[in-house]
Each structure stands twice: as structure tokens, then as C-alpha cells.
Amino acid sequence: MTSVKKPQTMKPATAAQKLGILLDAAPAEFQTALVTRTELAALMENPPEWLVELRANGPHPKQVVAAKLGVSISGLARSGATEPLTTAEISALLQQPPAWLVLERSTQAGVRADQIAAKDRDAERAAKKAHIERKAAQELAKETRKN
Fold it and tell me: Region labeled Disordered — which residues (predicted)?
């Protein structure tokens, strides 16, 4: 007995997030229809004109705005920048950064530096642990050969 598999679908909001676009700026037919994984892959592979335009000029969702500005989503929220921004608005902010943007970019750079330092520290600890374990195995092998 074989069953026909129904294609997996996702809500338009999920598809918009995966495409990196603002759902409210997408065409009405995209906003209301379920999207299959195959359709999503096709949109990513060969985007229609409306998708190319949205990705290029916006308005962009907060994740994209934060990435383009080099800040976290929390940093955007702290600044009060809750509305979607266009590429032109983002460019204007980058050309003449307000005080909040300078502060949030500095904060983000500090967080990234801390993450790198923690990763390096963890790698060093793992290397030391592996070295100690190798030494212990070698000592055990020596003892076993002696007996």
C-alpha cells in the first residue's frame, strides 16, 4: 500500500523570512498563499522581478536592517528603530551615523570580540585536554609494555 506524499508547505511569513523580505511589501498573492518547499527553492534559484526589487531596495525586515547596519536586532530595538527601512534609508544612516548607531556598532564589535576570545579559549582548553589525554595514554602504554 503506497501513500501519496503531500508536499510540505509553509506559511507566507515563514517563506518571506527565508527569502529575507518583508511580507507586507510582497505581492498580495504571495502574502495569502501557502508556499511549498519546491516553490521556495524555485524563488531562491530564479527570483521574479518583484523579489529582486524587494531584496535590492526594500523595505527590509529588521533582521536585514540590523545586518546591513552592523548591529544586533536588540540594538535596533533599543534605538527605537522599529519600522522597516529601505536601502536608501540604511545608506543615509551609514553615511551620517547617529549617536545610537555608533554606540550599537561599538557594542556589537565588543560582543563579536568576546565571542572570538571565548572560542579561542575553548579551543586552547580542548587542545590542552587532548594533550593530557595523549600523555596519559602513552604512559599507560609504557606501563603495559613493562609488565
Answer: 126-147
